[in-house]
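#onboarding

Welcome to the new folks! Below is a worked example of what a typical request in this channel looks like: someone posts a single protein sequence, and someone else replies with the predicted structure as tokens. Don't worry about understanding the tokens yet, we'll cover that in week two.

Example request:
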Amino acid sequence: MKYRQLGDSELQVSTISLGSWLTYSGGIEKSRSIACIHKALDVGINFFDTANVYGRGAAEIVLGEALAGLDRSSFMIATKVYGQMSDTDKGLSAAQIVKQLDASLKRLGTDYVDLYQCHRYDEATPLEETMAALTAEVKKGKVRTLGFSEWRLDKIEAAAELAETAGFEPFMSSQPQYSLLWPYPEAEVFPRCADLGATQIVWSPLAQGVLTGKYKPGAPLPPETRATHDSMGAMVPKRWLEPDVLEAVNKIQRLAEEEAGIGLAQFALAWVLRKENVSSAIVGASRPEQVVENAEAAELRLPGELFARAEDILAPLL
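Example response:
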């Protein structure tokens, strides 16, 4: 496993991290979830990403149970706040940050989280209020570092300015969707975050499973995959399952297997990690074997020419 610094913080996170969005919030049975988390630790993954809204606390509970009794300094937990937790509980107000953080800590069975992230931007709450509340939690020792997910560039800029002028804790990380099928954040968000001392923890680096090669053009969707799941299927963009996209993905799979000697998923993860501003790529796993396969991508160093060819294959479709 390789490790990279998270922004300008003191955190050194594994370049492959384990997420819990769709799997550990009820997507698979608890025993398999815990087995995947333990396997992640075995292969050197030290960074686990979750959120209060994943299963309305269910994913945090599973993660907390899996990590209970282990040396707290041997792993890092990232969770998030903003999502709808009840009819009245949502957003980034000071009251919600205090309430939701305490609830997350209880579910996780820990006194602090290593990274606390604003899951989305809250248009209903002044940014100053949000940042003041987050800064207060850092000073209390309940949070080590701060981050955000899917914020627009102007909001990122505003937060950085407030951190400088008002003395609030700066954000150390950004969590955007990023993959061969969704490369857009690298144009503006990546370079600006680098200027501000923040790095990326990217989600869906395998494009909701499309970049594993399991979906074939013209063939029925395989049963018991994300695209056929009653709830998870809605997370897979229909465009990514259209024949021309799947044909392009198949070309990249052949490129990975025949010229790099690796699987498509490992190739896609290596492509994400080629960017220095990416500290970690969040993967999901429903089986421990998937954790091992994905973790191996951290060690790959592939020729840039192969990545360029993959980008050329997809360029007409993006």
